Amino acid sequence: MLSNQFQGVVINASFPRSGHRFLRELCLGYFAKEMRFFNSYSPDALRNGHLESDRESHYNYIKTHDFELQGFDVLKTHFPLRRKYIVQVRHPLESIASYYEFALKNGEVKQDTKAAWSIFLNQKLCYWKSFCETWLAEESTAVLLVTYEHLSNSTALELKKVIQFITGDQRVDEVLVTQLVEKKPFNQYAGEDDSAKSGKRKISNFKYFDKAHFRSLQDELYPAYLGPLGLKLPRF
After folding, report:
1. Is residue 135 in a domain?
2. In a domain, 2, yes or no
3. Does the chain have fewer CB atoms within 10 Å around its N or its C terminus?
């Protein structure tokens, strides 16, 4: 019998717009009631900084963007035992461009101008680098890196790695994985229920795309970040 037992507590540390929701829904499809999701950034997630005692032990898959860069200590007060970490990142220029549009839509960015974009890019790029340094500085069997690029291009393979990581079992229900991927392929996933988007958008279509600037930033990031993380350079 194949294992679908959810082992321990998974802290899913994800840089914004790096495919968290897509991965979460695939995992929910696989583990069903075994997986109990908790969004640490939902308005009612914490009451005065603490979970209700009767709810605390219920959850086993916790999302965080770790804006405070606490690293492996994040949410330790609430979920202290048997912790595993799934870390999600994406090419920074792509994730930050998407993040900018999301922030603009939700009022975090007040004016849509090139100057506003420049400030946002500089701030979030510093955060992206610190996020990677905080979570991926050392290799550990308790940490699984999932990149947006691998999740989008090799969805079934990445999902199987995640399942094996969570269960601690190399056996995977291959039929169920195939069904889940076919039911919700990444290139048709918009991440928003009311969106009509389909397909993967090119970074060159971003409103403030600057080929020379983006190439310069990418070249600067490649040796210490993009190369070691295995993030492919998009064609500009």
Report:
1. yes
2. no
3. N
